[in-house]
Specification:
mainly alpha, 0% strand, 270 residues, 76% helix
């Protein structure tokens, strides 16, 4: 929701560059405070390449898609990420696709559709390229998440996250410079600054570190299903802060998502 508001003022890749720079500075400050050192050598460039996929390409698709489509479409389409994680994890990590995970994925997917209410989703021609970009974002984010598990073996997740953030900058900064020269930005007030700080420090430095940590600790197919909690949390925040109405369909969807997470957490890992 914050991204959708800021994209009305700041172009997509300029917003990504700001987000990555703030996130990088935050993690670098934590590393300096804890006297940790960065990873060097071949492993560094592997992580940097993974960051290009996640924070250069995938975030680019996500922000462009969010700008060209709708918030409801963005929430629904990007929740396809766990569907892509399972086959990618099977190819790269040799993780088995178990019956429990398929059942959990199916139940949770139905729950997400119920929570978001497909009647709010737009499929008209004007939103086509935005929806395509959102689908590409879901696919590339699934690839990034699996690769994070691959490169984070025997590595500190804090340094992995920082290097990955830096990997997104070679794509974000040149495009952001072009945007500033051709499009410019709108009026930046205190609310916009607060939004940028939230995206950079909370939604990037903290949230992405926790996401990477989850994939380092859990199998990718299992960790990815927690992605389905996102629309539930978003709806609850809208209810609490914006006084939005929660429908019986939302309650049913939330229960289905919870059931899916319980199934996958109790199912065999192999």
């Amino acid at each position: 929701m914050v991204s959708k508001v800021l994209l009305e003022i700041i172009p997509p890749f300029t917003l990504i560059a700001c987000r990555l720079l703030l996130g990088s500075l935050t993690l670098a400050a934590v590393l300096a405070w804890q006297h940790r050192t960065l990873i060097w050598g071949r492993h560094l460039w592997q992580i940097f390449g993974v960051g290009i996929i996640g924070y250069g390409i995938s975030l680019g698709f996500q922000f462009v898609g969010t700008k060209l489509s709708t918030a409801a479409n963005g929430s629904l389409v990007t929740c396809a990420t766990p569907m892509f994680v399972l086959p990618i994890a099977w190819i790269i990590l040799r993780e088995r696709i178990t019956a429990a995970r398929l059942v959990a994925l199916a139940i949770s997917t139905i729950g997400v559709i119920a929570v978001l209410d497909p009647r709010n989703v737009g499929l008209n021609a004007q939103l086509f390229w935005g929806n395509v970009a959102l689908l590409a974002a879901a696919l590339t984010w699934a690839l990034y998440s699996v690769l994070v598990r691959f490169v984070s073996r025997d590595a500190d997740i804090l340094t992995v996250s920082l290097i990955a953030f830096l990997g997104g900058l070679p794509i974000a900064i040149p495009v952001a410079a072009y945007e500033l020269m051709t499009v410019g930005i709108g009026r930046v007030d205190f609310g916009v600054i607060l939004g940028l700080l939230f995206l950079g420090v909370i939604a990037t430095a903290l949230a992405m570190f926790l996401w990477n940590q989850a994939f380092a600790l859990l199998e990718a197919g299992r960790a990815s299903l927690t992605f389905f909690a996102q629309p539930v949390v978003g709806t609850l925040l809208g209810w609490h802060f914006l006084h939005e109405t929660i429908s019986p369909l939302f309650l049913l969807g939330g229960l289905l998502i919870a059931a899916g997470l319980i199934i996958v957490s109790r199912g065999p890992s192999r």
